[in-house]
Every structure is written in structure tokens, then in C-alpha cells.
Specification:
By secondary structure, the protein is mainly alpha-helical. The chain has helices at 2-34, 39-51, 53-64, 69-93, 100-120, 128-169, 198-245, 250-275, 279-304, 312-333, 339-359, and strands spanning 96-97, 125-126, 307-308, 336-337. A two-stranded antiparallel sheet has the order 1-4. Strands 2-3 form a two-stranded antiparallel ribbon. Helix 1 packs antiparallel against helix 7 (198-245). The model is unreliable at 172-194 (pLDDT under 50).
Length: 360
């Protein structure tokens, strides 16, 4: 009876994840549009951190409970799955265009974080000093993101101001010189630009409507995040129970079942974003989530308590690095991730999964 209950709970968790991801992507996209924030920044920060909440909850709770050994398996397994499965499926659905910043900054940061994890883990432990290094790099990376976002917004505002100033400085007759049409005058002898009082109310009404829309979008974002987190927790608990009943090892569970469960938010969010043609969110979500997983979650967990890094995880971390390179190559050469790359990613994960089965 318990097995049937857990299967039912797994089905409910998938529903929560699917609808939660839908609400979350829509809400985050609308907030980005209303606040004139580039989608890639939303994908690399809010969406990435939000969808990494399950990894953070599992890993940090494990560290607090003195069971930090599952942290590396959860993080490395999630990062491999994020690229090879999630972006593989997303690219198989639709071609994902990749921005210059993602290709030349964000993906290299992800690869560098993976290399640092691999190097620091050679001695068998990620200690408190290693954790501080990760957290410092994470803060610097966040600072970079917000500086770039601010510059983009300033450039957009400057361009709009210049366009407005140019339009105001042009003579009225310029618009009519080509066809000899007469300039438009205000009715009833009113001067151009005068109004009857309704124009003054219109901007206020639009501002109020915009405010309501932003709050509604934020509401959808928060609701979607809550559904994602609860759905992930249900999925991990039920899937772990079912896996243990099948008699597989803890390492296998950590790298597959727990990694899959905590990566379900990224899966549903990125696939939903790909279907909705929001490629920046689909890719930014994964790259940002992988960076967040290593720099923040491993960093914070190791500051709480030293995190064991078994020798077997060196192979898994190397595979995570190879997955990042598979992602990076088409981004540099083709500026996009197409169906062929998606199929290669899915095939690579199948090979990795077979390796785990035989090596457990």
C-alpha cells in the first residue's frame, strides 16, 4: 500500500511542478518586461536561484544534520542532468539561441566553478576555507551581473531620451513636406499639446495599471516558486522511497533520483521556456542554476561543516565539466544549440547512466 501511495504522491508532485513552472516562467518574464530587465539577467538570477531552491534545501539541511556526504552527489548529479537532459530536451524541442554574454562570460564561469570544485575536492574534503572561496566568487559574479544589467538599462534610457530629443527638435513641416499635407492643428483653436484634462489622468491610470500588473506577475512568480519547491520535495521523498525499495546504492540515488528530483524545477521551467520561445530563460536558468549550485550551495554547506568528497566523485565532476564543454562548443561556433546537439547531450547522459548502473 505504501508503494501505491508514493506513486500517487509522485504523480501529484509532477502536476505541481508542471503548473508551477508555467506560472513561474510567465511571472518572471512579465516582471522582466515591465521593469525593463533583460530576460537573461532574470534567468541567471531569480529563476536560477528559485529553481535551485530544492538543491539548496536538501544540501544545506544535510549539512546541518551532519550528513553532508550527499551534498556533492546531489550537486554534481544535478549539474550533469541540467545540461545533458534538460538542455538536451529543450534543444530537441526548439533551437535555442545563445547570447554573447552567455557564451563568453556565464558558461566560462560555470566551467571555472566546476574546475575549482574538482581541484579542491582532490584532497577528499571541501573545507571551510574552500567554501569561503566559493562564496566570494559567487558574490563577485552577482555584482558583475547587476552592473551589466544597470549598464543595459542606462543605455536603453539614453537611447530613448536621444530619440525623444531628436523628434522634438525637428520642424513640424518636415513631416508634411513630402506630400504637401498641412500640419495638424488642435480643434476649437486650442494650441497643440493642450488638453481638456483627460490627458493628465491617462498617465496616472496607466501607471496604476502597470503597478497592478507587476504585483499580479510577482504573485504568479511566488505561487509558481512555492508549487515548484513543494512539488520537488514530494517528488524526492517518494522517488527516494521507491528507489530504496529497488535496492540501489546511496551514491546511485544521490546522482540520479535525488539529482533528478531536485532538478525537476529546472526541467519543467526550461522546457516550458523553450516551448514559449523564451530561450534566454531556458539557457540562463540552467547555466545560472549550475553556477549557483556549486558556488553558493557547496560553498555555504562547507562553511557549515566540511563536505566529504569521495574519489568516485572526481569522475562525476569531470563528466560535469565535459557536459559543460559539450554545451559551450556550439554556443561559440553557431551561437545556438540545435537539435543535433540536443540528441548528443541525451545520448551522453544515457551512456553516463549506464556507467552508474554498472559502477554502483
Amino acid at each position: 500500500m505504501e508503494i501505491l501511495d508514493n506513486i500517487a504522491l509522485l504523480a501529484v508532485s509532477f502536476f505541481l511542478l508542471a503548473k508551477g513552472a508555467d506560472f513561474f516562467v510567465d511571472g518572471a518574464s512579465e516582471v522582466a518586461a515591465k521593469l525593463k530587465i533583460p530576460q537573461i539577467i532574470i534567468g541567471l538570477t531569480i529563476v536560477a536561484m528559485g529553481t535551485s531552491a530544492p538543491e539548496a534545501a536538501v544540501s544545506i539541511s544535510a549539512a546541518l544534520e551532519g550528513n553532508a556526504s550527499i551534498t556533492i552527489g546531489n550537486i554534481v548529479g544535478s549539474n550533469i542532468l541540467n545540461i545533458l537532459i534538460i538542455l538536451g530536451v529543450s534543444a530537441a524541442i526548439t533551437r535555442l539561441a545563445v547570447g554573447k554574454d552567455t557564451s563568453y562570460v556565464d558558461i566560462p564561469v560555470m566551467l571555472a566553478a566546476t574546475i575549482i570544485l574538482l581541484v579542491l575536492g582532490i584532497d577528499g574534503t571541501i573545507n571551510v576555507y574552500d567554501g569561503i572561496i566559493f562564496l566570494v566568487i559567487f558574490v563577485l559574479y552577482l555584482a558583475y551581473l547587476f552592473v551589466i544589467a544597470r549598464k543595459r538599462i542606462n543605455k536603453r534610457e539614453l537611447a530613448a531620451a536621444l530619440e525623444g530629443a531628436t523628434a522634438q527638435s525637428m520642424p513640424a513641416t518636415v513631416n508634411f513636406a513630402a506630400d504637401g499635407a498641412q500640419p495638424i492643428t488642435a480643434p476649437d483653436g486650442q494650441a497643440m499639446g493642450a488638453d481638456d484634462g483627460t490627458a493628465a489622468d491617462k498617465p496616472a491610470d496607466e501607471k496604476e495599471q502597470k503597478k497592478k500588473t507587476i504585483w499580479l506577475s510577482l504573485g504568479y512568480t511566488v505561487l509558481g516558486l512555492l508549487m515548484i519547491v513543494f512539488g520537488s520535495n514530494f517528488a524526492v521523498d517518494s522517488a527516494t522511497y521507491l528507489a530504496e525499495k529497488m535496492g540501489v546504492t546511496d551514491r546511485f540515488i544521490g546522482l540520479t533520483v535525488v539529482a533528478l528530483g531536485t532538478s525537476l524545477p529546472e526541467l519543467f521551467t526550461s522546457v516550458t521556456a523553450a516551448i514559449k520561445k523564451n530561450a534566454d530563460i531556458a539557457i540562463g536558468n540552467i547555466v545560472g542554476s549550475n553556477i549557483f549550485n556549486i558556488l553558493f550551495i557547496v560553498g555555504l554547506s562547507s562553511v557549515i561543516t566540511p563536505v566529504p568528497f569521495e574519489k568516485k566523485f572526481l569522475i562525476d565532476a569531470a563528466i560535469a565539466l565535459a557536459a559543460g564543454v559539450i554545451l559551450w562548443v556550439p554556443c561559440l561556433s553557431k551561437k545556438s544549440i540545435g537539435r543535433a546537439t540536443g540528441i548528443i547531450m541525451l545520448g551522453a547522459y544515457c551512456a553516463y547512466f549506464i556507467y552508474l548502473i554498472f559502477m554502483q
